[in-house]
Amino acid sequence: MTPLHLLVAEDEAPQREALCRLLRELWPQLDRITACEDGIAALEAVAENAPAAAFLDIRMPGLGGLDVARAVIERGGLVVFTTAYDAHAVAAFEAGAVDYLLKPVRSERLVQAITRLRERLAARQRPPLTAVLDDLARRLAPPPSQRIRWITAAIGDQVRMIGLDEIVYFQAEDKYVRVATSGEDALIRLSLKELLAGLDPEQFWQVHRSVVVRVAAIDRLRKDELGKFWLSLRGRTDRVPASPSLQRRLRGM
Questions:
Q1: What 3-state DSSP class applies to 105?
Q2: What 8-state DSSP symbol labels residue 245?
Q3: 4-aspartylphosphate modification sites (predicted)?
């Protein structure tokens, strides 16, 4: 029998551990479960060893579940989303015929999802989902009216209003996030996760667990002698770390 490998991507540790535990209990035929705490790690896991199916949280640090889903589907895998969204958003999943689980995940509902996955795996069914994922991305994206338009940040003993077009990158540092522009740095108390919820995903990418960059500021992606990736950014002399998955994303543009 072909080894059955699943991927679970969920940034909340208790929910991730609970889902993995339920999957092992309810699907004893599983060979292995790879658990990831963010989208970047999940995308790297897909590239390393394509899973037969993936359970993906929609909102994760690094890359969202929709981005990871595209990679899973490209490698021939199936996808189940986990979500805490309200009824309106759940309707988007149902309209797209994409399986989903509401959080916290209940064993009865998980049994249904497992049954559907096993049937599709046995029949080797791989429904075309690219258009469905595009539609979900549009329907679940925050409306422009709710997006961040500028950043209020502390610079010494002053407070400055920084336009998004001035920002080169954000980088998490301890309890703060550094806002780097071409001329100066500032600190804010918002987390990267909170920032990403309000930023236009077409203009800002999370390229590392600790870094979000403005796409238009990307100059070059380099790999050093140790195999680590670094970004050079326009308007800055420093460089920032990047995930290997960024190389794949840039090549797809």
A1: coil
A2: H
A3: 57
Q: What percent of the chain has pLDDT over 70?
A: 85
Beta strand extents in the chain (DSSP E only): 5-9, 32-36, 53-57, 78-83, 100-102, 150-155, 158-163, 167-173, 176-181, 185-188, 204-208, 211-214, 218-223, 229-233, 239-242
Shared domain check, 167 and 88: no
- Number of structural domains (the chain) is 2
Least confident of 23-32, 38-47, 60-69: 60-69
Maximal CA-CA distance, the chain: 66
User: For 186-238, what is each residue's pLDDT tens digit?
Assistant: 989 888 878 887 888 888 988 888 899 999 999 999 999 888 899 999 999 99
Which tokens go with 135?
């539609």
Q: Please give the structure tokens belonging to residue 161.
A: 């209003």
The tokens of 170 are what? 């954000």
Which residues have C-beta within 8 Å of that of residue 124, sequence separation ≥ 6? none
For residue 97, what are the domain limits? 5-140
- In this prediction the pTM is 0.68
pLDDT band of 126, cuts 50, 70, 90: low
Q: Both 127 and 101 in a single domain? A: yes
Structure tokens at 244: 């290997």
